[in-house]
Amino acid sequence: MAASINDLASAVGCLKGTRVLVLGDMVADIYLDGRISRISREAPVLVLEEMGERVVAGGAANVAHNAATLGGAVCAFGILGKDAGGAGIAAVLSRAGVDTAGLLATSERPTISKTRVIAGGRATVSQQIVRIDKESREPLSSVLAEELEERLLTALAHVDAVVLSDYGSGTITQGIRERLLAACRERGVPTIVDSRYGVRSFSGVDYVKQNDAELAAAFERHLDTEEALEEAARELVAELGAKGALITRGEKGMMLFLADGARHEIPVSDKSEVYDVSGAGDTCVAAFILALAGGASPLAATQLSNIASGIAVRKFGTATVSAAELTRKVRELSG
Known about the structure:
Elements: H1 5-15, E1 19-24, E2 26-39, E3 46-59, H2 60-69, E4 73-81, H3 84-95, E5 99-106, E6 112-120, E7 127-134, H4 142-155, E8 161-166, H5 174-187, E9 191-195, E10 207-211, H6 212-219, H7 226-240, E11 244-248, E12 254-258, E13 263-266, H8 280-293, H9 298-312, H10 323-333
Parallel strand pairs: 1-4, 1-8, 2-6, 4-5, 8-9, 9-10, 10-11
Antiparallel strand pairs: 2-3, 6-7, 11-12, 12-13
Helix pairs in contact: 1-8, 1-9, 1-10, 2-8, 4-5, 8-9, 9-10
């Protein structure tokens, strides 16, 4: 049974001021825009006249950014390099009102970055021609990990919820994961994890967000039917001792499986043209945990996150959703 429009409107009100801690792999999405000027004489490649450069918050930084634009009081925790990408992430989050004191800057490793070179001409459509990724494959040093863990455990006394955003880049070490989740359980702080590659290692988390492809990869099997999807989701919930799993399915919407046996299917909120799915999962996680921690039911929180994600996918690139946009959409759906 779906939550009522009144429940959803009330859930939107739950977002404002809810204190959420976001921990994870902070990614700098860097866009280099260039105008095509000619073909190089050195090699058969385009020569671009640089027109601009911008840094967008990606990965866990996008979760923090979305949580802030949705009205939450957000503190971000992670590792940045002492470089332009790190400075760019910190600046973007600070402008959004995110507390960045938990972002540790280090010269030991670069900021995780994805640099996209965008080329276009006066009479041509701009398009991405190459992406350059940079990150350290070395594990966090014990000094960095211990400092991050200490700051995290101290901050728990001042937050209403915790998001663990794991893109597989090593910020959330085993020690940090285990001690943080144990402390959250002890204090009654709700948690959610969105992990691209290692979701089954987050034992003790309250809620899990996965897309259907990630869930299939986690169990190394095909999930071609709703029955198979539900079986895997319930297996994951039981294995982690979680309260529920939120599974996103693209154009098929979302499904929420709760530990008490409840199952909810949420169709997409808007079937108009989808421009870009980049970062929509981050929007989903941010909206869900803010609503849940603010007092909404898991179902209402899921439906609200579905609406927020529907707004995000109609924007180009990694995008955020504002509380005003979400409020307008809920009112629109109310007829």
